[in-house]
Amino acid sequence: MNTRNLRFRSNRVRDILGLFHEELDVLYGRDEVGVFCEMLFEAWLGWDKVRLLTSKEQTIDQSDLLRFHWALEDLKVYRPIQHIIGYTDFCGCRIAVNPDVLVPRPETEEIIQWIITQLSIPHFPFSVLDLCTGSGCIAIALKKAFPEAAVTAVEVSEKALAMAKENAESNGTDITLLQADILNCQLPTVSYQLIVSNPPYVRDSERAQMQRNVLDYDPVLALFVPDDDPLRFYRAIAAIARQSLSPDGLLVVEINEALAEETCSLLRNHGFRPEVHEDYRGKPRWVSAVWNP
Ligand code: GLN
Predict the structure, then answer these.
(1) Contact present, 149 and 142 (Cβ < 8 Å)
(2) Which domains does the chain have, with CATH numbers?
(3) Which protein residues touch ligand 1 with a CB less than 6 Å away?
(4) Whose CA, among 93, 127, 179, 236, lies 20 to 30 Å from 188?
(5) Atom of ligand 1 nearest to the CA of 218
(6) Ligand 1: centre distance to CA 45 (Å)
(7) How many CA atoms lie within 13 A of 202 on its CB side?
């Protein structure tokens, strides 16, 4: 394909940004399209924001231009930008993603940052269990924050687990990965000081309100739960925590914003004292729990 077949007016950065805004602003809004462009230039040319802002008259190679062409086509059909560049940054860790894993979300990052501030000086030995790890982002970020901790991550999907393994290696973190379905298994009974999970929690009936970039590209297995039993994973997590959370331990789960009360009452019934926390959008997003004395 030569430049004539591509709709960019030229190889100049200004024209690339121009076409992205022309074609995508109606779908995503101008600010988000600006962020996409920054991410693409960073990923493919290693340019930071300032370099991008000051290089509008510069031209890029034909092969790079072609990549921008395909990115534009992909974005028009709502392919997530993280799938296009192949990664996302999560708590300072670069996490590779593909359609086998849920793209790590900023809300989840906020939870992990909160955990890190809560446990700034954990007592050692310190063991962490991450249930439904997906890309491994939570386990990897916690291991990075607490290098002395023993971190175990559990995931049902073999493909997701392969991604988690790749991410653990690329971030230089030594974590234990286990394949298991927490709805249907006996995990080894070890005592953990921290148990954390971002399980599937979107009710089937909530599909209608979801964005296409989530619905069409994130794995169904990581997202949805049946309407008649939306807390099934939390029941399994609570049962595991009952067996394995140390007396001074902390349990932290990401939640469906509409089910905070129900999640708390389930945890209370399992002997915990839960507390709801709001995310940066002001929505109930996670519950922390300690043993009820
Ligand atoms: N918060 C995610 C979303 O809105 C869902 C994450 C989950 O089910 N654990 O897509």
Answers:
(1) yes
(2) 3-75 (no CATH), 87-291 (3.40.50.150)
(3) 105, 198-202, 214, 223, 254
(4) 93
(5) 10
(6) 31
(7) 17
For the chain, 293 residues long, give each residue's pLDDT as a single digit of tens.
Answer: 455 557 899 999 999 999 999 999 999 999 999 999 999 999 999 999 999 999 999 999 999 999 999 999 999 999 999 999 999 999 999 999 999 999 999 999 999 999 999 987 667 679 999 999 999 999 999 999 999 999 999 999 999 999 999 999 999 999 999 999 999 988 777 899 999 999 999 999 999 999 888 999 999 999 999 999 999 999 999 999 999 999 999 999 999 999 999 999 999 999 999 999 999 999 999 999 999 97
Q: Which residue in the block uniquely carries the two structure tokens 């990965």? A: 177
Which atom number of ligand 1 is nearest to the Cα of residue 198?
A: 9
Residue 218 CA, ligand 1 centroid: distance in Å:
9
pTM attached to this predicted model: 0.94
**Residue 80 token pair:** 């997530």
